[in-house]
Amino acid sequence: MGRYGVSGGFAALTIWLEIAGKKRRVELSASLSVRMMECSVDGRMLAVDVRFLEPGVMSLVVDGRQFRCILDGDAVVINGRRYGFEVEDPRSLQGRRGVGGGAQGPRPVKAPMPGRVVRLLVEVGDEVVEGQGVVVIEAMKMQNELRASKAGRVAKVSVAVGDTVGSGDVLVVVE
Amino acid sequence: MATVAVYSDADRGALHVLHADEAYRLGPAPAAASYLRGDLILEVASRCGADAIHPGYGFLSENADFAEACQAVGVTFIGPPATAMRVLGSKTRARQAADSAEMPRVPGSVRGLADVAEAQRVAAAIGYPVMLKAAAGGGGKGMRAIAKPEELAGAFIAASSEAERSFGSGEVYLEKLIERPRHIEIQLMADEHGHCVYLGERECSVQRRHQKVIEEAPSAVVGEALRRRMGEAAVRLALSAGYVNAGTVEFLVDADENFYFLEMNTRLQVEHPVTELVTGLDLVHLQLRVAMGEPLPIRQEDVRLRGHAIECRIYAEDPDNNFFPSPGLITRLVQPGGPGIREDCAVFAGWTVPLDYDPMLSKLVAFAPTREMAIDRMLRALEEYVIGGIKTNIALFRRILTDTDFRAARIDTGYLERLLSFRASEVGETVPEEIVAVAAALFAASLKGEAGVVGSASEESRWAVTGFREGLRL
Question: What's the CATH number of domain A12-91, 3.40.1690.10, 3.30.450.40, 3.30.700.30, 3.40.640.10?
Fold first, then answer.
């Protein structure tokens, strides 16, 4: 764990992130009395002037450039552009890779947005191929067919026709 | 003037209700059980003693039966009379009206084609390329573009059977194919006393699947002479049908400045703000005065166009996922402002965009002395605009507004589909990757117990981390 030469002996926080497919290691030297904060991104040092404006909103000034940053769920919006990010837990990184990268293990089909289930194309026990449509959801009169991301057997169907589902809800599990 | 809102169960907390003096429930969320129930709306009108109904630009706004029902119970329908709506609302009858008003329309057959031989005769007469269209059609079904005579027979059979499957009628007709047309429309306002003025044009060539995405006024390709020709033709059509109140005549315009009648919208349109900005007129206010039987307060020579206005339709949809609607809770709303920026907005932070209706959130409009300046103002406003919690098409507009062809006004109705067929790349000045990482890390650190945020283990450090998080949650 790195420490930075900030008077008062503040500890550094280390945060592992994934942004646009890239792994990032960010270290923050927390000094709140002095708003200038030393940070490093993948070992590169930056002096950042931080102002927190309200929950989820802050302004960063770096080398004279100002960035208004707004937290929006799993993304940060900066100067009108949206950047998705994910916080990685280094302790479970190996394990998660094992599940996410291979064809082994159950794989859920999730609702990418809120909607209503209009059709189920599979039943529990059906064999599906990768890319096969499994469920159709509708929002605002547009239908979206959601597909299996791997071949396998349908282990679970968690919804029925007519159900309202939220973004991220698991609809079907293929194993 | 006091206002009365009607609402469905999904819209009890909607902005149109919150702005109204009185509000009455119509029924459940589905439009067929609420906003399309003319009988319920008229019941509300009689209960609250309303003098007039403004139908907006969806639902019953082009429904002649509803206009008639209003008239029958003595409530003013703010729009044209039912008779004019019937003539101009139907595609075939509007074509006949256009012919008698000596308005150019796309050359071709006006009735269904009997067989391939007749199709070949018609195509030869109007000249290739041609377009086969389903008489009962819509949404691009039963449509075929044909470049050469030898393609016609196959296309005729394919289009006809597709039309049969989709609409239950295999009837097809032929039109000359207008290559790379621009969509340009004329705004009209007519009173009950036989006066009708045209309020300039709007160009709506930036479309996706026949849905308008960006509209602007004036059109970069319409000069004084063409504007007068189109405007006068549109006025002739309206007067011939006994039209009253606001309406829009839509045209296709080809590269040689030929214009062809497309259809007439017998209501106020979504994109009316751009006309309001360049004419300095309040169209809804004019609609009310006309509906009260007043003569138009302006004559044609009073209509002067000034500056340039552009409108972006902000939708709850995800450009990265085939534009699928993205309703849901709006967690944050930062609205743009400043000189020349108008935002007609229907949402607020804390509002849940319902699943049930069109996903339009707002209309962002920029006005400036020139097209170039209006585009730049719009780009600045789009950078300020934050709608948190749901996906929106804001980034799409940045892409269009920085595109060389759009900036040079080299647009037609196929422009946006061509642009979208190229891979999106982030445009304009981007944010350095390290800044994104630092901002994301600071937000992550402020969230208590977030996995992956690791502080050092000493007692002193834990206090520091706690203090740090408290600070971030200011």
Answer: 3.30.700.30
Does residue A9 come out as left (phi exceeding 0), alpha (psi in the -120 to 50 range) or beta?
Answer: left
Residue whose tokens read 């992956």:
B452
Rounded to whole angstroms, how far apart are CA atoms B45 and A161? 38
pLDDT one-digit tens code per residue, B315-353: 999 888 888 889 999 999 999 999 999 999 999 999 999
Q: Which helix (H) or strand (E) holds B122?
A: helix B116-126
| Chain A residues touching residue B388 (CB < 8 angstroms) | 70, 72-73, 77
Kindly report the pTM of this predicted structure: 0.81
pLDDT tens string B135-146: 766 556 778 889
* Count of CB pairs separated by less than 8 Å, A with B: 189
- Rounded (5°) CA angle B256-B262-B268: 120
| Residue B37 annotated to the active site | no
Instruction: Catalytic residue, from B105, B202, B267, B342: name it.
Output: B267
Using CA coordinates, name the residue in chain A closest to B354.
Answer: A140
Q: Mark yes or no for CB contact B332/A140 under 8 Å.
A: no
**Domains plus CATH for chain B?**
4-86 (3.40.50.20), 116-176 (3.30.1490.20), 182-420 (3.30.470.20), 434-472 (no CATH)
Strand partners, B364: B312, B343
Q: Does residue B244 contact residue B290 with C-beta atoms inside 8 Å?
A: yes
State ipTM.
Answer: 0.71
> Is the Cα dihedral B107, B112, B115, B116 positive or negative?
positive
Residue B141 CB-half CA count within 13 A: 16
